[in-house]
Design goal:
This protein has helices spanning 17-29, 42-45, 52-68, 85-95, 100-104, 107-118, 136-142, 148-151, 153-163, 176-193, 233-240, 262-268, 271-283, 288-314, 317-346; strands spanning 4-9, 35-40, 77-80, 168-170, 201-203. By secondary structure, it is mainly alpha-helical.
C-alpha cells in the first residue's frame, strides 16, 4: 500500500504566495509518490472565526485555490474537515491521552502567554517558570484571550494527522512541533493499546520553509504582509512594489540571498534567469525597481491561467461543496477500520 501524506490549511484569509510556496506546491508534488490527503481545516478556524457568513466564502475560496493550483480530486483525497465526524470523536479520545504539560509547551500557547505577560505590569506576574502558580488572578492575566479550542489545537491537529494513517506531513518550521506532538500522542496510545496509529514524520523543505513577506518577516496574514495568490494583476504589482529593500543604488554590489525581492523571484523565474540576476546582484548593475517589475511579470506569467480557473470555480459554490462532500465520504471510509479498532480497544460502541 502506498504511503500517505497529509496537508491541511485553515480557511482564515485570502490564500497568498506564502501558502503556495510553503504548503500547496510541495504538498501537490507529493501526489507523485504518495497517496495524498488534503483537507480544509474549518474546525481549526473556529478558534478565531465564529460567523458562518464569514467562514463559508473562505472555505470556497480555499477549495477553489487548491483545485486551480492543480489538485485532482479524482487522484487524491480532498475534503472539508467538519464533514468527517470521526475527527471530532478522535479529538476527544486523544485529549484523554494527552498530558496538560504537553499543551503548556505548545508554541502557540506560550506565545500568547508571553504576549499577555509583556502587556501586564511586572509586579502582577511571576517569572515564566511559575506558570503553574496558584494565584488565579495572575493566571487569568496570562490566559487572557485563550479559549479552550486554541489551547487544545495541537490535539485536534494530531487527530487530523493520525486518523488517516499519515506517514509524512509537509509543514513549515513553525508547525514542526505539532507533528512532534502527534508523534508523542500516537506512541502513547500505541503503548497502552497496541499498534493503532502510524507514527508520522514532519517533512520540511529547506528551500521554502520561510517565505518572506513584504516587510521581510515571514509572509503571514497576521502581519498583513502578503501577496495574494489570485488577485488581479494590478493588485499583485502594487503589492510587489511595496516590498521592503535597502538603500543601495543599482550600481552597488548586493547580496541576493538577503534581498526580499530576489528571495521571491527565485521561486518563479526561469532557472537561467535566476542565475543571471544572482550574478548581477553580486557584481552590481541591477536596481530594486527593475527586479520588482520583473517579479510582478513572473507572477503574472505563473498564475494568470490558474486565476481564470479559480474565478470560474467560485461561480459554482454548490459544485465546490459536492467535491468536498465526495471527498469526505472517501475519507470516512479510509478512517473506518482504524476508528473501529480503537473503539473496541477502549470498550466504546
Amino acid at each position: 500500500m502506498a504511503k500517505i501524506s497529509l496537508t491541511g490549511i485553515k480557511p482564515t484569509g485570502v490564500p497568498h504566495l506564502g501558502n503556495y510556496l510553503g504548503s500547496i506546491q510541495p504538498a501537490l508534488a507529493l501526489a507523485q509518490n504518495y497517496l495524498s490527503v488534503y483537507f480544509i481545516a474549518d474546525w481549526h478556524a473556529l478558534t478565531t472565526i465564529k460567523d458562518g457568513k464569514e467562514l463559508r466564502p473562505l472555505i470556497h475560496r480555499l477549495a477553489a485555490t487548491w483545485l486551480a493550483c492543480g489538485l485532482d480530486p479524482e487522484k487524491t483525497l480532498f475534503f472539508q474537515q467538519s464533514r468527517v465526524p470521526e475527527l471530532g470523536e478522535l479529538n476527544w479520545i486523544l485529549a484523554c491521552f494527552t498530558a496538560k504539560g504537553v499543551l503548556n509547551r505548545a508554541h502557540g500557547y506560550k506565545a500568547m502567554v508571553q504576549k499577555n505577560r509583556d502587556e501586564t505590569r511586572p509586579a502582577q506576574v511571576p517569572p515564566f517558570n511559575d506558570l503553574e502558580s496558584n494565584d488565579e488572578v495572575i493566571q487569568s492575566h496570562l490566559d487572557a484571550g485563550v479559549n479552550i479550542g486554541f489551547y487544545t489545537y495541537p490535539v485536534l491537529m494530531a487527530a487530523d494527522i493520525l486518523l488517516f494513517g499519515s506517514d509524512v506531513v509537509p509543514v513549515g518550521q513553525d508547525q514542526k512541533q505539532h507533528v512532534e506532538i502527534a508523534r508523542d500522542i500516537a506512541e502513547s496510545v500505541n503503548h497502552r493499546l497496541g499498534k493503532i496509529f502510524n507514527v508520522p514524520e514532519p517533512l520540511i523543505q529547506e528551500s521554502v520553509k520561510t517565505v518572506p513577506g513584504l516587510d521581510g518577516r515571514k509572509m503571514s496574514k497576521s502581519y498583513d504582509n502578503v501577496i495574494p495568490l489570485f488577485a488581479p494583476a494590478s493588485e499583485i504589482r502594487k503589492a510587489v512594489m511595496r516590498i521592503v529593500t535597502d538603500s543601495k543604488r543599482p550600481e552597488d554590489p548586493k547580496d541576493p540571498e538577503t534581498c526580499n525581492v530576489f528571495n521571491l523571484f527565485k521561486h518563479f523565474a526561469e532557472p537561467g534567469r535566476v542565475d543571471e540576476r544572482r550574478r548581477q546582484y553580486s557584481a552590481g548593475g541591477v536596481g530594486y525597481g527593475d527586479m520588482k517589475e520583473e517579479l510582478a511579470s513572473a507572477l503574472e506569467a505563473r498564475f494568470s491561467g490558474a486565476r481564470r480557473v479559480y474565478d470560474e470555480l467560485l461561480k459554482d459554490p454548490a459544485g465546490l461543496d459536492r467535491i468536498l462532500e465526495e471527498g469526505a465520504v472517501r475519507a470516512r471510509q479510509l478512517a473506518g477500520d482504524r476508528m473501529e479498532k480503537l473503539r473496541k480497544k477502549l470498550g466504546l460502541r
